[in-house]
C-alpha cells in the first residue's frame, strides 16, 4: 500500500434512493443545495479538507446510488472505508427500515477489520419538512442506533443546512480514529530533507 | 438574478448618459456575480461586481465590490462614485449605506472586507482559468507586482455565457472564438488598455506590461513570425506550448498588438455591448489609452511611491526594464500620465458613506516600503486577515501551481521540494511566498496536497492535449475534404488518426494479447483509417427518399448508414426515430403509418388502463412502491430542459423536496408505470411486429459475423432484422424476472425520446424501442452491464494495451468508471442536444449494434495520456472520468469512435487472415502469451460492412 503523506479519510454514504445523500454531501462540501440533483448513477465522491483534533485531514466522501440493484458495485467503492454514514429520510418509514440491510451489506462488502467497532453514523435527513409528515421519531431512531452499538445519530436538513456540519465533524472524528488505528502499520512518511530546505532559502 | 443584471446595466447606462466623461470615472467593464471564495469563512463565496474603470486622471482600476456593499444596486451608490473627483481616490467603489463597524480580529468578516481595487498597472499577471470543468466556474487570479495576489475571482458561468446578451456581439467581433466568459472579456478589455501577453509556456497566464525578460521566459519574447503561431507549435505532441482554445485566442493577441486601431475597435464593441461605454469616448481613445499606462509611467510612479511608501517592489521592475520598440513608443505617450500606484482595499471606516479609507490603504502598504521582496513580510490584505496570511496565499496559489505543472510535460510528484525547485515556480510564485513556504511546515503540508490533486492535474493535461488534438483533427479534416474533393492530397496518407497522438515510447513496446498487431502495424500496412462523418440528414433529404405513397425508396441499410454518419435534423427526428425505434416498419407507407399510430395508441391506453382504471392495482403495495420510486426520479430528471422545467402542477406526492410538477413530468411517470405493466408481460403476449428492433445483440451479432464471413455483408442490416424474430421466441426469457420494475436510469432514457416524440403514446413506444436496446443494462443480475464492461475491457486490451496495464495497476480494470456511460448511454455526459445526436447514431446500428462501446473507447482513448500520466488509483480515475461529464466534444468523439471501430476491425482481420493462412504469428514475439483467436465478444462487435481499404489488405 502506498504511503500517505497526509490523512485521507474515506467516508461512504449509504441509504435508500432519494433520502438526500447527494444533497448532504454537497451541502457539507460545497455549502449548496439544489432540489435538482439527479439520481446518482454508479458512484462519485467529493473531497474536503477539515481540521480534526488539530490535524488537517482530507475527507473523501463517497456518494452512492440508492437502488439495491446497484449494490453489487459496492465492493469496489466500499473498500478501505473509514466511516460509513447511513442516511434515511425521517418522513419515509421504509428508508429507515432498510438501514439494517444497508449496514449489513456494507459490513459484508467492505469487510472492515473489526466490524463490531467499525464507525457508523446515522443521519435522519429532511427535518425541514412539516412535522405532520414525519414518520420516524427521534426516539425510535435513537433506539435503533443504540441497539447497534451506540451509533452517533444526527437529524439534519441538507436543504437548510441544519446540523450537517456537526454530523460531518463527528463523521470525520470517528473516521480519523479508525484511520489512526489502521495507520499504526505505516510509519509516518513525512520527512524533511535538510538539504532541500536550504534550497528554499534562495528560491528567488 | 437576471433582473438584477439588467437593472444594473440599465442603471449604468443611465449614469453614463448623465455623466460627463471628463469628470466621472468611466466604467469600461463590469461583471455581476463574480464570486470571491472565503475559504475559511463559513459564509461561503461572496458575490460581487468585478469592474474596470477609468478614472478622470486616466488611471485604470480593477475593482471588486461585494453585492452587499451596493444595497439594492441603487443609483445613489453610483452617484457616490461620481462625486469622487479627488485625485487621490483610487477606489470608485461606493461604501454601503450603513457600514458595519470595523473591529480588528473579529471572527466573522463582512463581505466588504473583501472589496478590493487596484490600479491595473500594478498587476503583474493574470491567471485565467476558463469555465471548462464540471464546476462551470471560470476564474481568474490577479497577481500584483508586489507579490500579493488578489483572491480568486470566480465567474458564474450562467451569467457570463448564457444570460449576458453581449456575448453574441462579441462573438461577432471574434467569430472564430469560443463563447466568451467574464474572465476572457476582462482580459480582452484590458488588452486595449495595457500591454498583455499570453504566456506561451503556461497557458492561461497573461503578463501585464511584462518586461522583455519575462516575455522571453514565457516564450513570447519576440513576436511570432507566423500569423498563427500556435498552429505550428501545437502539432508536436506534448509540446508545452499547446494551449486550449481560449488561451490560444489570447496568443493571437500578439499580432493584434500591432494593429491598435483594430484592437480599439474590437474593444469598443466589447464595451458597447456591455452597455457601459461612455458615448463620448471615440474608438481612437483606446489607442491612446494603450499608451496611457506604461512602463515609464509606472516607473515614475514607483519612484514616487518609494518615497511615500506605496510600493516596495523594485527588483522585478528592473527586470522589466527592457522594452520592445513598440512599447517604447507607448512609453512616450504614457509618460505624461502619472499617478500613485495604490493598492487600496476598500475598508469602510466611517459611516458617512463616502469616504474611502485611503489612510488604511497607505497604512497597509507602508509597512512594505523600502524592503526587498525577499525580506519583507507582506502585510495581509484585508480578505486574508482572518486566516494565516501565508496560508491564504498558498491556498489560492496552490492550484495554480499545480495546474501549471500539469502542463510541464510530466513532473515527478515526489515532494514539495521539486515544486519549489522547479525553474518555473521561481518565475511564477512570488519570491516571498516561496520563501515562506520553505519556512512553514503547515504550508509544506499543504503543498503536499497535490497528492490528492492529481485528478486536477490530469484534467489540465487533458485540456492541453485537447488543443493539439483539435489542430490535428482540423488538419485531418482539411486533408479529408481535400482528398474527397478529387484533389488526391498526398498528405492525407500521413494522418493516421490517433497513432500520431500516441507517444513514440508507447508504440515501441505496445503489445496486447494479440501480439504485435498494434498501431504500428496498422500504419505500416497502410490501413488508412478515417472517419466518414458528415452533416445531418435534412428534412429535404428525408422527404426526397419517399415515393408518392410515402414509402422509403432507399434501402434500410443505406438510411442507417446515413444516420450513423451524420444523425438527423431535429425537425424530422419525430418521424425518423419512429423507424429506428421499431414503431414504423421500414417499408411502411404513409397510410400504414397513420394506421400504426392509431393502433399503437389503442394498445398503449389498453396497457395503461390496467393500472389507471383499477384502484385496487394502484393501492397495492407493489404499485405504490414503484410509483414512489418513479416519482422520486422523475422529479429530478432533466428539470433544466424547458420541456420538463415548469412547476405548473403541485407535486402530487409532496415528497421530493417540494419541487412542483408539470404535465410532461406526470406523463413521464405514467409512461414508466405503464412500461412496468408491459415489461412484465410474457414475450408471446406482446405484439411484436416483424421488424421490432432486435432482441439479443449477441445472438444477432454472431449471425451477422457468419454472414460477413460468407461474403454477404452487402445485404447489410435489412436481412438480419428479419432473421431475428425467430430467435426472440427461442430465447423466451421471462423478462419480468430480469427487470422487476423501474430501475434508476430509466427516467434518463425516457426523457429525451419522450421529448422528441412530444406525446405520451409515441413517447411510450419509442421508449419501448430504446429499452429493447438497453434493457439488459437494468437486469437484476446486472449481467448486461457486466458483459458490456467485460467487452470494453477486452477492447482496451487489444486497442491500447498500455492503458489496459495502467488501469490494471490502478485497480480500475472493473471499469466502473464507465458504468454510468454505458448504463444510460452517456446521458449524463453530454448536453441535451448532443444526447439526441449521439443516440440516433447508436440507434442506427450501422457498424455495430454495440457502438456505445466504441464511443466509450474513443473517450478513454482521448484521455488515456492524462490518465496514465497523472492518475494512480481507482478513485482518481473514477473522479476524473465522472468529471468529464458535460465537457466532452461529441463530434470528435463520434469520429474517434468510428476510427476505433476500424482499428479493431483491422486488427481482427489481420488476426483472422493470419490464423487462416497458418502463419506462425507467434514468431515475432515469443514472450507474449498470445491469443490465437479473437474473443467472441470482439467478433460480435464487428457487425458492420467492412471498410474497403482494410478488406483489400493483402
Automatic annotation (TrEMBL), chain A:
Belongs to the small GTPase superfamily. Rab family. The keyword Lipoprotein applies. GO terms for cellular component: fungal-type vacuole membrane; late endosome. This is Uncharacterized protein. GO terms for biological process: regulation of vacuole fusion, non-autophagic. InterPro entries: P-loop_NTPase (IPR027417), Small_GTP-bd (IPR005225), Small_GTPase (IPR001806). It comes from the Eukaryota. It comes from Actinomortierella ambigua. Keywords: GTP-binding, Lipoprotein, Nucleotide-binding, Prenylation. One of its GO terms (molecular function) is GTP binding. PANTHER family: RAB FAMILY, RAS-RELATED PROTEIN RAB-7A. NCBIfam families: small_GTP. Pfam families: Ras.
TrEMBL record, chain B:
It comes from Actinomortierella ambigua. Residues 567-846 form the Rab-GAP TBC domain. Residues 492-502 have a biased composition (Basic residues). This is GTPase-activating protein GYP7. PROSITE patterns: TBC_RABGAP. Residues 166-175, 322-372, 915-929 have a biased composition (Low complexity). PANTHER family: SMALL G PROTEIN SIGNALING MODULATOR 2-RELATED, TBC1 DOMAIN FAMILY MEMBER GTPASE-ACTIVATING PROTEIN. Residues 87-107, 160-183, 219-250, 263-385, 467-508, 692-735, 915-935 are annotated as: Disordered. Pfam families: PH_RBD (PF12068), RabGAP-TBC (PF00566). The keyword Nucleotide-binding does not apply. GO terms for cellular component: cytoplasm. Residues 467-480, 719-735 have a biased composition (Basic and acidic residues). SMART domains: TBC (SM00164). Residues 266-287, 306-315 have a biased composition (Polar residues). The keyword Calcium does not apply. Gene3D superfamilies: putative rabgap domain of human tbc1 domain family member 14 like domains, Ypt/Rab-GAP domain of gyp1p, domain 3. SUPFAM superfamilies: Ypt/Rab-GAP domain of gyp1p. Residues 93-102 have a biased composition (Pro residues). One of its GO terms (molecular function) is GTPase activator activity. Keywords: GTPase activation. The lineage of its organism: Eukaryota, Fungi, Fungi incertae sedis, Mucoromycota, Mortierellomycotina. Residues 693-703 have a biased composition (Acidic residues). InterPro entries: Rab-GAP-TBC_dom, Rab-GAP_TBC_sf, SGSM1/2_RBD.
Amino acid at each position: 500500500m502506498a504511503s500517505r503523506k497526509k490523512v485521507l479519510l474515506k467516508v461512504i454514504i449509504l441509504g435508500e434512493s432519494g433520502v438526500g445523500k447527494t444533497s448532504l454531501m454537497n451541502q457539507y462540501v460545497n455549502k449548496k443545495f439544489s432540489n435538482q440533483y439527479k439520481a446518482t448513477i454508479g458512484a462519485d465522491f467529493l473531497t474536503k479538507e477539515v481540521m480534526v483534533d488539530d490535524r488537517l485531514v482530507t475527507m473523501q466522501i463517497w456518494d452512492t446510488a440508492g437502488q439495491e440493484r446497484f449494490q453489487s458495485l459496492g465492493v469496489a467503492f466500499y473498500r478501505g472505508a473509514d466511516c460509513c454514514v447511513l442516511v434515511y429520510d425521517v418522513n419515509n418509514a421504509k428508508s429507515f427500515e432498510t438501514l439494517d440491510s444497508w449496514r449489513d451489506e456494507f459490513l459484508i462488502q467492505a469487510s472492515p477489520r473489526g466490524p463490531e467497532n467499525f464507525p457508523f453514523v446515522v443521519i435522519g435527513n429532511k427535518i425541514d419538512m412539516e412535522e405532520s409528515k414525519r414518520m420516524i421519531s427521534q426516539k425510535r431512531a435513537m433506539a435503533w442506533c443504540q441497539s447497534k452499538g451506540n451509533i452517533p445519530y444526527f437529524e439534519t436538513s441538507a436543504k437548510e443546512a441544519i446540523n450537517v456540519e456537526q454530523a460531518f465533524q463527528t463523521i470525520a472524528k470517528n473516521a480519523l480514529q479508525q484511520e489512526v488505528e489502521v495507520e499504526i502499520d505505516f510509519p509516518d512518511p513525512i520527512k524533511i530533507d535538510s538539504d532541500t530546505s536550504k534550497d528554499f532559502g534562495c528560491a528567488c | 438574478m437576471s433582473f438584477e443584471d439588467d437593472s444594473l446595466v440599465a442603471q449604468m447606462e443611465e449614469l453614463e448618459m448623465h455623466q460627463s466623461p471628463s469628470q466621472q470615472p468611466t466604467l469600461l467593464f463590469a461583471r455581476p456575480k463574480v464570486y470571491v471564495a472565503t475559504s475559511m469563512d463559513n459564509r461561503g463565496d461572496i458575490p460581487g461586481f468585478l469592474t474596470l474603470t477609468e478614472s478622470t486622471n486616466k488611471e485604470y482600476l480593477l475593482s471588486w465590490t461585494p453585492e452587499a456593499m451596493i444595497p439594492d444596486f441603487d443609483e445613489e451608490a453610483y452617484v457616490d462614485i461620481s462625486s469622487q473627483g479627488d485625485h487621490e481616490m483610487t477606489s470608485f467603489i461606493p461604501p454601503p449605506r450603513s457600514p458595519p463597524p470595523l473591529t480588528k480580529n473579529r471572527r466573522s468578516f463582512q463581505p466588504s472586507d473583501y472589496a478590493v481595487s487596484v490600479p491595473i498597472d500594478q498587476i503583474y499577471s493574470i491567471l485565467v482559468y476558463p469555465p471548462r470543468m464540471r464546476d462551470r466556474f471560470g476564474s481568474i487570479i490577479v497577481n500584483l507586482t508586489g507579490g500579493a495576489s488578489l483572491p480568486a475571482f470566480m465567474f458564474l458561468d450562467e451569467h457570463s455565457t448564457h444570460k449576458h446578451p453581449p456575448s453574441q456581439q462579441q462573438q461577432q467581433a471574434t467569430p472564430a472564438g469560443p463563447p466568451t466568459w467574464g474572465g476572457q472579456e476582462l482580459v480582452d478589455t484590458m488588452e486595449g488598455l495595457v500591454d498583455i501577453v499570453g504566456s506561451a509556456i503556461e497557458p492561461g497566464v497573461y503578463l501585464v506590461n511584462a518586461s522583455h525578460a519575462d516575455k522571453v521566459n514565457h516564450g513570447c519574447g519576440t513576436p511570432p513570425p507566423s500569423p498563427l503561431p500556435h498552429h505550428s507549435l501545437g502539432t508536436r505532441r506534448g509540446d508545452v506550448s499547446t494551449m486550449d482554445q481560449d488561451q490560444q485566442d489570447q496568443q493571437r493577441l500578439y499580432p493584434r498588438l500591432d494593429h491598435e486601431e483594430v484592437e480599439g475597435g474590437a474593444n469598443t464593441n466589447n464595451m458597447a455591448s456591455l452597455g457601459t461605454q461612455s458615448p463620448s469616448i471615440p474608438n481612437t481613445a483606446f489607442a491612446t489609452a494603450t499608451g496611457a499606462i506604461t512602463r515609464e509611467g509606472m516607473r515614475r510612479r514607483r519612484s514616487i511611491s518609494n518615497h511615500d511608501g506605496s510600493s516596495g517592489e523594485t527588483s522585478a521592475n528592473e527586470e522589466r526594464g527592457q522594452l520592445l520598440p513598440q512599447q517604447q513608443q507607448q512609453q512616450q505617450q504614457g509618460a505624461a500620465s502619472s499617478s500613485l500606484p495604490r493598492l487600496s482595499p476598500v475598508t469602510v471606516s466611517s459611516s458617512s458613506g463616502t469616504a474611502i479609507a485611503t489612510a488604511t490603504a497607505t497604512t497597509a502598504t507602508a509597512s512594505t516600503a523600502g524592503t526587498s521582496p525577499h525580506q519583507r513580510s507582506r502585510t495581509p490584505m484585508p480578505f486574508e486577515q482572518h486566516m494565516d496570511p501565508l496560508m491564504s496565499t498558498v491556498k489560492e496559489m496552490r492550484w495554480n501551481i499545480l495546474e501549471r505543472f500539469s502542463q510541464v510535460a510530466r513532473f515527478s510528484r515526489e515532494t514539495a521540494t521539486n515544486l519549489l525547485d522547479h525553474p518555473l515556480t521561481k518565475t511564477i510564485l512570488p519570491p516571498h511566498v516561496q520563501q515562506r513556504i520553505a519556512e512553514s511546515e503547515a504550508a509544506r503540508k499543504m503543498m503536499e496536497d497535490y497528492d490528492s490533486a492529481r485528478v486536477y492535474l490530469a484534467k489540465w493535461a487533458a485540456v492541453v492535449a485537447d488543443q493539439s488534438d483539435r489542430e490535428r483533427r482540423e488538419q485531418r479534416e482539411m486533408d479529408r475534404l481535400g482528398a474527397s474533393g478529387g484533389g488526391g492530397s498526398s498528405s492525407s496518407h500521413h494522418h493516421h488518426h490517433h497513432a500520431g497522438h500516441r507517444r513514440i515510447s508507447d508504440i515501441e513496446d505496445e503489445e496486447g494479447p494479440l501480439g504485435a498487431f498494434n498501431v504500428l502495424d496498422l500504419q505500416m500496412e497502410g490501413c488508412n483509417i478515417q472517419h466518414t462523418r458528415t452533416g445531418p440528414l435534412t428534412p429535404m433529404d428525408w422527404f426526397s427518399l419517399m415515393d408518392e405513397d410515402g414509402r422509403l425508396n432507399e434501402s434500410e441499410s443505406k438510411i442507417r448508414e446515413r444516420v450513423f454518419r451524420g444523425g438527423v435534423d431535429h425537425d424530422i427526428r419525430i418521424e425518423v426515430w419512429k423507424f429506428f425505434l421499431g414503431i414504423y416498419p421500414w417499408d411502411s407507407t404513409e397510410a400504414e403509418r397513420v394506421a400504426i399510430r392509431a393502433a399503437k395508441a389503442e394498445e398503449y391506453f389498453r396497457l395503461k388502463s390496467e393500472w389507471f382504471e383499477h384502484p385496487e392495482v394502484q393501492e397495492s403495495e407493489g404499485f405504490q412502491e414503484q410509483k414512489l420510486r418513479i416519482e422520486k426520479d422523475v422529479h429530478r430528471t432533466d428539470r433544466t430542459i424547458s420541456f420538463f422545467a415548469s412547476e405548473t402542477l403541485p407535486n402530487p406526492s409532496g415528497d421530493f423536496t417540494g419541487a412542483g410538477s408539470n404535465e410532461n413530468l406526470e406523463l413521464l411517470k405514467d409512461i414508466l408505470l405503464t412500461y412496468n405493466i408491459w415489461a412484465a408481460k410474457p414475450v408471446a403476449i406482446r405484439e411484436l411486429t416483424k421488424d421490432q428492433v432486435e432482441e439479443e445483440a449477441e445472438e444477432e451479432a454472431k449471425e451477422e459475423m457468419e454472414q460477413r464471413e460468407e461474403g454477404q455483408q452487402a445485404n447489410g442490416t435489412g436481412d438480419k432484422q428479419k432473421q431475428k424474430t425467430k430467435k426472440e421466441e427461442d430465447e423466451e426469457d421471462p423478462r419480468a424476472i430480469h427487470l422487476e420494475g423501474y430501475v434508476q436510469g430509466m427516467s434518463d432514457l425516457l426523457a429525451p425520446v419522450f421529448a422528441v416524440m412530444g406525446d405520451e403514446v409515441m413517447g411510450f413506444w419509442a421508449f419501448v424501442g430504446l429499452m429493447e436496446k438497453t434493457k439488459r443494462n437494468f437486469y437484476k443480475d446486472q449481467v448486461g452491464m457486466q458483459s458490456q464492461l467485460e467487452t470494453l475491457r477486452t477492447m482496451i486490451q487489444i486497442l491500447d494495451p498500455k492503458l489496459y496495464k495502467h488501469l490494471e495497476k490502478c485497480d480500475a480494470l472493473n471499469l466502473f468508471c464507465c458504468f454510468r456511460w454505458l448504463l444510460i448511454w452517456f446521458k449524463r455526459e453530454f448536453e441535451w442536444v448532443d444526447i439526441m445526436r449521439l443516440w440516433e447514431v447508436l440507434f442506427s446500428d450501422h457498424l455495430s449494434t454495440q457502438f456505445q462501446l466504441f464511443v466509450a473507447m474513443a473517450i478513454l482513448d482521448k484521455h488515456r495520456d492524462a490518465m496514465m500520466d497523472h492518475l494512480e488509483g481507482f478513485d482518481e480515475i473514477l473522479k476524473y472520468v465522472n468529471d468529464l461529464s458535460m465537457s466532452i466534444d461529441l463530434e470528435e468523439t463520434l469520429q474517434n469512435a468510428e476510427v476505433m471501430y476500424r482499428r479493431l476491425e483491422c486488427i481482427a482481420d489481420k488476426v483472422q487472415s493470419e490464423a487462416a493462412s497458418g502463419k506462425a504469428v507467434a514468431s515475432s514475439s515469443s514472450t507474449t502469451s498470445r491469443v490465437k483467436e479473437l474473443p467472441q465478444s470482439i467478433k460480435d462487435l464487428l457487425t458492420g460492412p467492412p471498410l474497403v481499404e482494410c478488406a483489400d489488405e493483402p
